[in-house]
Amino acid sequence: MERINKSLIYLAGILMLVLTGLANLQVFYRFIIQLPLPWVEEVIRYIMIYLVLIMSSTAIYLNSHLNVDILDLVIKGKYLQPLKKFRAAIVFIFTASYAYLAFTLIMDTIELGQVTPALQISMAWPLIPLLLGGILMAINCIYIIIPKKTEFNQNQNLDISKEG
């Protein structure tokens, strides 16, 4: 799992560079050349959707997602780990349902033949990160729930500087 999440972090960095480059290109064309490119804003929007939904799964893996921490402060000792697994199970149910609904939405979109306004590509392409993000979040929840040789560490840090 660490390798997958590390790859997602690198992918996010590349997507952020592409997003920044496209935004600068749009500013140049809009304000210097006075000829805005309509497709650039759409691509930037879709890249941001990919970034948010794919990196949400890494946030679950790193235990840095939105969380209600009040119970962690009250519950100590041997009950803390089952609480984290219970919380991950609830998130798993939500993300698995979310992925299923995303899949049905993509299938309906393909069936209807919807296309994006500027790029004129299938609307399924901007919806794929909904499914991909849901699946990756569910997989990371399973990783938290299933006992491992070394139990899940709350302060786990994904160090992208070391090789391996």
Could you describe the 3D structure shown?
The chain is mainly alpha-helical. The chain has one domain. The chain contains 5 helices and no strands. It has helices at residues 2-32, 38-61, 70-74, 80-112, 124-145. α1 packs antiparallel against α2 (38-61). It is elongated. It starts with a helix and ends in a 19-residue tail after the last helix. The mean pLDDT is 89.
Layout of secondary structure:
Elements: H1 2-32, H2 38-61, H3 70-74, H4 80-112, H5 124-145
Helix pairs in contact: 1-2, 2-5, 4-5
Large-scale geometry: elongated
Q: Runs with pLDDT <50, length 5+?
A: none
Distance between the termini: 12 Å
Q: Estimate what percentage of residues fall within beta strands.
A: under 5%
The number of domains? 1
What is the average per-residue confidence, as pLDDT, rounded to a whole number?
Answer: 89
Q: How many runs of DSSP E, i.e. beta strands?
A: 0
Provide the helix percentage.
over 70%
Total count of helical runs of at least 4 residues: 5
Order of helices and strands: HHHHH
> Whole-number radius of gyration?
19 Å
Structural class: mainly alpha
